[in-house]
Every structure is written in structure tokens, then in C-alpha cells.
Structure to design on (208 residues):
């Protein structure tokens, strides 16, 4: 099975949803730069203070801060799923110096569906489980099915911020599709399919 992977795709494509499933099923480490940054912000660290304004606007945090943050967190032998990194060509070039990659999976989704999904996303404050009020609602409003934790809406899931995140993705991150295609590492998945179907297709691509 391919064990060192990148999940690419616009905001809301389902990178976090799929990464959590894949990590649990295959014992791989899930590294989400968005989750790490949100934790830094919540703890009020120096990095969190530097990152917060960029995140609130839906802009990218400067490359060097992200590259320094990810270094030392990648264990090649154990395998990993990168969710939200790399996000720019300089980040992808830096990653090539840090670790080998087996595959980059591009989860494609339209702008319209990105906005629909992200305005209806809710996340558990305690365990991080991801819900959607339209497609995958919790059994009890505002309460996590898995751990009973409180569900909240991310600060950057406001419509105007989502629109900027999508534009930033098109401008800075979409070029990575060609970057990995040229290296023979890219595989495409249609992210508009139901979660289970997307997951089955990714597993088939990984050869498990
Ligand atoms: P980050 O947290 O990485 O946000 P993102 O890339 O915008 O991705 P999302 O977490 O919004 O979406 P997702 O694809 O994981 O979708 P999800 O599974 O939740 O980054 C946040 C910010 O941090 C950035 O804006 C930037 O400022 C900064 N940052 C992070 N990394 C950085 C980097 N490398 N460089 C610079 N800055 C960085 O699913 C979305 C919703 O859809 C959920 O409600 C879910 O339940 C639902 N859903 C998922 N799959 C399906 C499906 N198949 N069918 C129906 N609904 C589905």
C-alpha cells in the first residue's frame, strides 16, 4: 500500500473527512496544517499570533512559517497523510527536500459546492469529528455523536471568507495539480460523490 500521501483539493473538498477515515483505517499519521494552526491560535503561541490574521481573512500563512512548522513532524517509515500541505509551489519544493511522497490525490469540487458545504459545516470542539448540516448532520442538534462534545462553526466558514479561500486556492494551490502530474504522482477523484464512494476510490488508488 502507498503510505506517504498528499490530499489536494479546494477548501471543503473533503480532505479532512477523508484523511481522518484513511488514518483510522490504515494506522497512518494525519497531519493537517489547518488543525495545527488552529491549535496554535487557541493556545496563543507566537506562531498562532502571527498566523491568526491571515487565517481570519482566508489568506495563506507565509510559506516559511508553515515549512518550519511541518519539519520534524513527518515520519517517512510510519507513513502519513498530508491535509492542507503543501499549498504553494515553494512549499511543495521544500517538501521534496524533507520527505518522499508516493502519491498526491486531487479531490475535485466546484466552487458552488464548496460554498454549500462550508457554510453548513460543523466541527466537534472536543474530538474534531466533522459534520455537515445538509449531508451528514449529528443525531442531536449541536452535539457530537461520537463523544458528546459541543459542535461549532469555524471562524473562516463565513461566506465572504470562503469565497476568498477559494480564490486563493485557484491562484496559489491549483498549480500543484500540474506540479504533481508532471512527476507522475497525481491521481484525481471526483469529490462531489458521497463520502463513502470517495473513500473507496481513494483506497483502491492506494492499493489496499
Ligand atoms: P485548512 O484547515 O487546511 O482549510 P481548507 O484547506 O480550506 O480545507 P477545509 O478544512 O476547509 O476543507 P476540507 O477539504 O478538509 O473539507 P472537510 O473534510 O472539512 O486551512 C485553514 C487556513 O489555515 C487557511 O485558509 C490558511 O490561512 C491556513 N493554512 C493551512 N494550511 C496552510 C498552508 N499549508 N500554507 C499556508 N496557510 C495554511 O469537508 C467540508 C464539509 O463537507 C464538511 O461539512 C463535511 O462533512 C462535508 N463533506 C465532506 N465530504 C463530503 C462528501 N463527499 N459529500 C458531502 N459532504 C461532504
Amino acid at each position: 500500500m502507498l503510505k506517504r500521501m498528499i490530499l489536494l483539493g479546494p477548501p471543503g473538498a473533503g480532505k479532512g473527512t477523508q484523511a481522518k477515515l484513511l488514518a483510522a483505517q490504515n494506522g497512518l499519521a494525519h497531519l493537517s496544517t489547518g488543525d495545527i494552526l488552529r491549535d496554535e491560535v487557541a493556545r496563543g503561541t507566537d506562531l498562532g499570533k502571527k498566523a491568526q490574521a491571515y487565517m481570519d481573512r482566508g489568506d495563506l500563512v507565509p510559506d516559511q512559517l508553515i515549512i518550519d512548522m511541518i519539519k520534524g513532524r513527518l515520519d517517512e517509515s510510519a507513513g502519513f497523510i498530508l491535509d492542507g500541505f503543501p499549498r504553494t509551489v515553494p512549499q511543495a519544493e521544500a517538501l521534496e527536500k524533507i520527505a518522499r511522497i508516493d502519491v498526491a490525490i486531487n479531490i475535485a469540487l466546484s466552487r458552488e459546492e464548496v460554498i454549500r458545504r462550508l457554510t453548513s459545516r460543523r466541527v466537534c470542539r472536543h474530538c474534531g469529528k466533522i459534520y455537515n448540516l445538509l449531508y451528514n448532520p449529528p443525531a442531536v442538534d449541536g452535539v457530537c455523536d461520537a463523544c458528546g462534545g459541543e459542535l461549532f462553526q469555524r471562524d473562516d466558514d463565513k461566506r465572504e471568507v470562503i469565497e476568498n479561500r477559494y480564490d486563493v486556492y485557484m491562484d496559489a494551490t491549483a498549480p500543484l495539480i500540474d506540479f504533481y502530474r508532471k512527476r507522475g504522482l497525481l491521481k484525481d477523484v471526483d469529490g462531489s460523490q458521497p463520502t463513502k464512494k470517495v473513500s473507496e476510490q481513494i483506497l483502491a488508488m492506494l492499493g489496499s
About this structure: The mean pLDDT is 96. The chain is about 45% helix and 15% strand. Residues 9, 11-17, 33-34, 37, 54-55, 58-61, 66, 84-85, 87, 91, 117-118, 121, 130-132, 135-136, 156, 165, 194-195, 198 surround BIS(adenosine)-5'-pentaphosphate (CB under 6 Å). The two ends are 5 Å apart (CA to CA).
